[in-house]
Design a protein that fits this description.
By secondary structure, this protein is an alpha/beta fold. 38% of the residues lie in helices and 19% in strands. Helix 1 packs parallel to helix 7, helix 3 packs parallel to helix 5 and helix 9 crosses helix 11.
Length: 370
């Protein structure tokens, strides 16, 4: 069905079709519209889920953990400080191998108090064991949410998945949305270590060092295995519904001499910058990173790389640029742009490429910085 939708409502539409047994939620700008729409679906009878209106984001994740460990499908959503408040529980969700799906509407962290787009909130969760995908359109927000459930619940993965969309720039923007009849695209959930109330058992929470290292290795192995599951899921999605996705979305990269790498809406805007640069005779391409965890193997050999980060790790640099520099021997021009929702246009991106100084870092909007 074709309609016009916001990114938030597109996520809610996907959740309605997947029918999780439990949705636990607490509102926070700019995510609130997701859980409000889901609450309306439940209230009207369109969605047969148990909706738990909790008192905090920490409790929202705790409720999802409690439900998921019994072997049922769960969903939640949050943003910014709400995600930080969940942090204890996000570690627990991954460590307990629970396939919870969460939409994170990316927003800056305070202080100062800022409600606009930034990726630092989700990137602070990158080492917890959650898989992370970053979307750039309303349609992709819907599609990625559908696929997230199938990927998370696959027995070779059994890890939570975070679907990230830029606050306001995507969460509240209106774009075309084509919903689908998912049929049997998402198989019934089967959690092999689910708690069975009919067969009570005792659980020891304290693990010895030799056991703990094996638990951690098991998470790492499953994240590595998830790359194949993601590929298979996206191929099946294309076969059934026609829309094609990958670990990255590459645009005019084949003959490019310089490639712009970014995530979210910045990554999509970069395509327009590439068209502009091509008209000027600059062989540019763009590579929008979709999956941060697992981190994809990027083909950047022989290319100049301009990385645009809507985030920062103080004392180290742009987080995406740092990840890429760890993988490639090519020099990287690191651009910090878009923090706190700062406007970054395709003209700005084209200018980053024109004035690039390889091996350096540039803060857009900061005068006379060193």
């Amino acid at each position: 069905m074709k309609k016009i939708s916001t990114g938030n409502k597109a996520v809610a539409e996907a959740v309605k079709q997947v029918v999780p047994a439990v949705v636990a939620a607490y509102p926070i700008t700019p995510q609130t519209e997701i859980v409000e729409q889901i609450a309306e679906f439940v209230s009207s009878g369109e969605l047969k889920s148990r909706y738990i209106a909790v008192e905090s984001e920490h409790s929202a994740m705790a409720a999802c953990i409690g439900a998921s460990i019994t072997g049922v499908r769960t969903f939640t959503a949050t943003s910014s400080h709400g995600l930080l408040y969940m942090h204890e529980m996000t570690n627990w969700a991954a460590g307990a191998r629970l396939p919870i799906v969460m939409a994170t509407v990316n927003r800056s962290l305070g202080p100062g108090w800022n409600i606009w787009a930034e990726h630092t909130d989700a990137l602070q969760e990158r080492d917890t064991g959650w898989l992370q995908v970053y979307v750039s359109t309303v349609q992709e927000a819907y599609d990625a949410t559908l696929m997230a459930f199938r990927i998370a619940e696959h027995n070779d993965v059994l890890l939570p998945v975070m679907v990230n969309l830029d606050g306001f720039l995507l969460s509240h923007i209106m774009q075309p949305l084509d919903t689908v009849d998912i049929g049997d695209f998402i198989p019934p959930i089967h959690l092999p270590h689910a708690i069975d109330v009919k067969n009570p058992a005792g659980y020891g929470c304290l693990t010895a060092p030799d056991q703990q290292v094996m638990f951690r290795w098991d998470i790492e192995k499953s994240i590595r295995d998830s790359a194949k599951v993601i590929e298979e899921t996206e191929k099946e999605f294309t076969k059934r519904f026609g829309r094609k996705y990958g670990m990255t979305e590459d645009y005019q990269c084949a003959d490019a001499e310089v490639i712009i790498v970014a995530m979210g809406t910045l990554g999509k805007e970069a395509e327009v910058a590439v068209d502009l640069l091509r008209k000027e005779g600059i062989k540019a391409g763009s590579m929008r990173l979709r999956w941060l965890r697992p981190f994809p193997k990027l083909n950047l050999v022989g290319k100049q790389v301009v990385v645009i980060d809507r985030d920062y790790s103080f004392g180290r640099g742009g987080i995406l640029a740092t990840e890429i520099m760890a993988q490639t021997k090519e020099e990287v021009f690191s651009v910090i742009a878009g923090l706190g929702g700062q406007e970054v246009t395709y003209e700005d991106m084209a200018d980053f490429v024109r004035k690039r100084r390889m091996g350096t870092e540039f803060w857009f909007g900061v005068k006379n910085h060193v």
